[in-house]
Structures
1.
Amino acid sequence: MVQLEKVSKSFPQAPRLLDGVDISVPTGCRWGLIGPGASGKSVLLKLVAGLLRPDAGRVILAGRDMTAATEDEQNEVRTRVGMLFQNYALFDFMTVAENVAFPLVRRGGVARDEIDARVADRLRAVGLAGSEAKRPSELSGGMKRRLGIARATITQPEVVIYDEPTAGLDPVTTSKVYDLLQADHEATGGTVLAVSSDVAALRSFVSRIAFIYQGKLRYDGPVEHIEEAEDPVVRQFVRGGMEGPI
Amino acid sequence: MPVKTIAGTLGSTIVGLCRETGGMTVLLWRVLRALVPPTLDWRELLRNLHKMGNKSVPIVVLTAVFTGGIMVIQSGVFVRRFGATGLVGWGAGYAVFREVGPILIGLMFSGRVGANNTAELGTMTVTEQLDGLRALAIDPVRFLIVPRVVAMITMLFCLTVIGDLVAVIGAVVVAQALLGVSPWTFYWSMIEHLHPVDFTNGLIKALAFGFAIALSSCHFGITVRGGAVGVGRAVNNAVVAAAVSIFLLDFFLTYILR
């Protein structure tokens, strides 16, 4: 379970970016978050992963209060979490294969042969077989994103966080990426948190969706009902209307 | 300029200075904590030792050869006037070992390795690679910073030893060519007048300079804000901070080790 209780976060250039946000994502749920640009979606994911500390409120991840935990305690929880970053966060001093193998190598306890087999399997799944020896700088944006997904999921984590898994990808590749994420989820049964600006594609993947606007959650419920939400802000955003309060 | 503006500029400069000094102190504490017990990533350490040390040898050798030669040229006027050929080796060796060698090699090292280190860490910061490490439950200080600090201190020490020896060779060649001082005379001048402490004092300085360059380049690298422009600014700040630190440390170490 992933839980946020009255979480607030401010930055000098963005006061009250998140303002008392409450979220509760049950284990095994595929949960999506949408919202306008600079509405704090990526910050919220970083708060969940413990990469940022909230100004107020609590973040509970895999049963542990991340806001009260020390860095070592947070690291213990992070070994059960996989994360895809908006800017990929690929290590440019490593090859493609080394990037994917890195989480397994660092955690230890897995034989080299098994690591190689799992890396090959993951790279085949994301369509990057044959690129093992390349550096991330030699890959296109879409390939980097798929590499990021491979690295985030190689350990089959309990919680996977995807920040813009399909940004900048063409519609066909977007569908392929979501098919891959869905297959991964069906195989592991983990909890998924995904943020995307591509509302239509995200809606096809998640079972629950939330909308954030001006620091507050304006909707958090079944994906099929969001278009008929009571809040006119939510309806306008989801429908992409020109007329409305936004 | 109005007094208010002067006071504002002075105030923001002092606040900025305190912020950077405080940041470096925190980083120093985290590095020391990561070293006890020493849990180094040996692969990262070896990679950095090679990149920072081996690849700096040509530029250090070039700098050192000319440094040695310049010391002899500067003293040449007096050697000719007073016929003091027996002091050329001492003069060149004393200046190179104690002062010019560590300082010039330190500044070259800061420009080449320190600047590159800041740019590399800065790029990693703005592309979220440090957050990527943390998300994988890896402490960036332990994994990235500590090997770099150890590699920079070790390699500046080694490069100063190499540089000192090469500078002496440069000085011998120039003394023979311009002043007609034989290598044998030069050698005995050094042996008779120089003491091991002249050499070791320079190496102590090299260790301190390596530490200052490592700390400032890593600090400015991991605190980059503002994308590519921020990385450029950080490199500039790191090089300036390292140069200032080198001269400050040199002043105090020269006073203590005199």
2.
Amino acid sequence: MTGHYGIAVIGAGPAGLSAAGRAAEHDAQDGEAGHILLEGAPHHANTIQRYQKGKHVMDEPGYLDLRSPIEFNAGTREAILDTWAEDIRATGINLQCGAEVTAIDGERGDFTLRCADGTEITADNVILAIGTQGNPRRLGVEGDDSAFVQYQLDDPDEYADEDIVVVGAGDAAIENALGLARQNRVVIVNRRNEFSRAKQGNLDAVLAAINDRDLAFSCRYQSNVKGLQPPSAPGEPGAIVLDTPDGEEAIPCHRVIARLGSIPPRGFLERCGIELPNESPEALPELDEHYQSNVPGLYVIGALAGYPLIKQAMNQGHDVVEFIKGHDIKPVEHPLLQLKFGLLPYRADVDEILALYQQRVPMFARMNTLAFRELILESEIRYAVGDETAHEELRERRRTLRERRIAEIEQARADEDRRRSEAGKPPKPRRPVEEPDITKLLRAGDYVYRDGEYTNTFFTIVEGEVTLRSDNGPETRLTAGQFFGEMSLLSGRPRIGDAVVSADTILIETPRRTMVKLMAANAEVAEGIETVFLQRTLQQFFAPSVSYSALRDIARQVTTSRFNRGDTIYSEGDTGDRLYLIRSGTVALTSRRDGREIAVGHPQSGQTFGQMALMGDPVRRESAVAAVRTEVIEIEREEFLALLRKSPDSVPQLQAETTRQLQQASRMEAVPESSSVISFLLDQGLGEATDALVIDETLCIGCDNCEIACAETHDGVSRLNRKAGMRFAHVNLPIACRHCEQPHCMKECPPDAIHREPSGEVFIDDSCIGCGNCETNCPYDVIKMSYEPPKKPGLLQWLLMGRGPGPGEDPLAEPTEAAQEAGKKAVKCDACRDRPAGPACVQSCPTGAAVRLSPADFADLAERN
Amino acid sequence: MAASAGIYLSQDPALPPNGGSWQGYTLGGLGLALILWLAWLGIRKRQYRNNRGTLEGWASAHVYLGGIALPVAATLHGGFQFGLNVHTLAYALMAGVILSGLYGLYTYLRFPPLLVRNRGDQSMDERLAELDRIDKEALETASRCDESVHTAVHSALDRTAVGGGFRDQLFARDRSRVLLPGTGKREGRNVLVANRGQRAVVDYLAQRIPDTSKHGEAERLRELLYVFGRRAELLQRLRREISLQLRMKLWLAIHVPLTVALLAALTVHVVTVFFYW
């Protein structure tokens, strides 16, 4: 195998195959043999060959079209490999298997590729499409190289009746775990609290398995591997030690399968002369918009370029060959971006705008171009216009763009269906055309968000100015390159203060999901956001009159700690040297009086506690225990004093707050009965509630009108259960949604059907697919799966003629066939977000027993009576 | 009230106070409007989609207008003339409705705090679950005891009565029974005796304890004794809860039918007054 080629593609995975296929098409047109595809393994698509038998391969992301001479549709591993084998033959790809490239030298026009067998070829351009699969990431604990741990699973059916722990939350981990669960007992360990990296289908399947009570399949969320206890003798079980939110847990098992993804082959890349941006083992090469690395003529596509999805990799394969051939074509997602930028006052092309924005925002500047493109695809662009006529014109233009886009999609669909019918294929089943995502218009002076709103998107300013206003402290003006909204993004709390947009301002609004993914993948971005979050938090609490940027050094000194429910933060009698600011969660403060624990306070996110230690009384007079999973910012004496030096005028305010807390504590201490009611509420997890239904039993006459009203205003299904509520003293805590500060149900909703109103109500929309995740994830059992009940006769018909079951949920109702067909859907309290009179349960209570409260109202409730 | 009294006193002193004067018609109209509005609560409380006002507000107005304003207006309208006729019948029905309503008000104010105390931080479901659990415990322990103890425990569980007929529920009567070995004339036979408050079985167990010789039997009997003590308490609370709940609903069974009757009588009253007076 020798010779000289115009294009040498290394790696016959989806990206490489697609590139080689496109190159082969060009060769066939030009009548030359100008390409070669080198693959180290004995066959094409090695990663997919090693998938489990019959594995279903998916074609995410759905919004993207495929652009490649090689066909690819979602299907089984076998079907896809067969199609590709056929396409390799049909397109005439010059595939050389078993040719492992060990070195690449030279640059455009003069590359030398050396193979493991000693042969050499030369090429004008090289496309590196080797992926990252050859290099699995290890567990990083002692014993992770023993036979107890496997990083690859070829056939799950090889094992039967074993206890197996699968570590990882990606697609490979999920698929292995599900495959193994057919014959084994499986525990899957997820470092985070959701499977955010997984593809849709896998996400659904794994959650279904976790929810399936007949399957020996469970998950440990928010757990890290702490150690391994390999088996003492072959055949004996060993154990894996996890660090879970409930403490350390050793799970006995026969084997551990770690699927933590793979990391780029750094050594090889460096030998090829490719520079990597940082020391991180996960660092990917930096590429220009044509996928070209710093070595001219050396292109990188696919997973190694940061794109692990098959369809994207294949599109890149096609496009990169076009670039090499000198055709400056636009990527498939180009029209989507064009619409997003459609109304902006630029005469620039999408790529230029992207480059400009990346330059402008320091945080994004060092992101991979392609990752940034992806971020913009998932974000919204908002444009504030000052002039009313200009605004009107843009609205008109928006309508035109929208209609044109919809017409284009319909035309393309019609064309494709015609081609398919000519080729004798049936038309594709399609969803209705989605609303095109065009630049969102604002007027100068509009609120981007308001104080107290429960939104959590993240905003980046690329042009213009945004003013942040809050009740205490001066206005903060932010200009191009700066970001805001990180407080709600990180803490899950409502917005603090208003954000007002000026004329000619352009914002990128990124959804929480995308930001969380980005922060997980990019430590630099995570750190940048975290630092600004701390600066602004410190500014807000301790130095409102100082600009937040002046607090940078102090922000770097403070630490953030996490506590699981029940963890002690400090104990009564300890000597304290720091105060705490709650970032998320609630802390129960208790003090011992005459041998019993008395609740003396329950500070929530956004409040401080323990400040007395820095204000003259170093001995802790109470114990602090996390009432729910809690994150706190710890501020030590030195930083505290530095803050006060910068802003001496905030001392009285701080003192006033401390006085208020002490007064509350003394009130609670004096009445141990009401203190025990508060302890009960906190024990029931109400510390994380924002809007909980509580019934005062001294007033409740048991008429159940609250439940009936709920059913009557919510399609016949009550979302609250009064009788089953937990009771303590005069308080009944019915089973009803508390609209948690960080809703457990909202994580892992596959269709993203659970939302939060800016006013705080958490609700499920019609796109619910009935997977039952939210029901499983809710620690308070307030979500139920239910068929849509049949229609009932009206009130007067019941009242006068006795027709129908009467008001309220009908326990005997049989779902109609249509309802059964549609399946059960998740239903929960939405706090009657659409009702002008507020929650029906409260409005319909004849005695005023039913009330809705947040933790701030607990003291009042406890003192009733 | 003051307005009603004023209107009443403004009547021509020449004629006896009567529903037929303009003052009488005014007071009668007022009373009729009040009655219709008060009865409308039955509809209003079921209009769950209605966004106007809270039900608490409606209920409060219902109490004040129905308990104070209506009797004044209606009594003055009648001018203290009573007889054996449909008009007085309407008045009597109204009085019945108001009195039953006042009793209802009393139950609503008095019983919820009693229920809270009776509940002792346990919901009905939790209490039933505990009962179920200790019953199983009792059976399990009893199965390791002497045959006669086993029979007694078994029958005590089997023949425990909660609820029952209307009066049993209302007065929280305990009609539990138990089969115990007979004494005296009935020696050697099991007899069915009343087991109110689980007293009979508790006494029986307590008597057996000093009398046991089998190893471990005393301990098991002590255990059973505890279980039946706890059972008695749980059952009593259950009966009391049922009774209180029933009392809070019962008055409505008088209040509502009387209201319907009142409306019928009132219709007759109005029709006769206008057509036959």
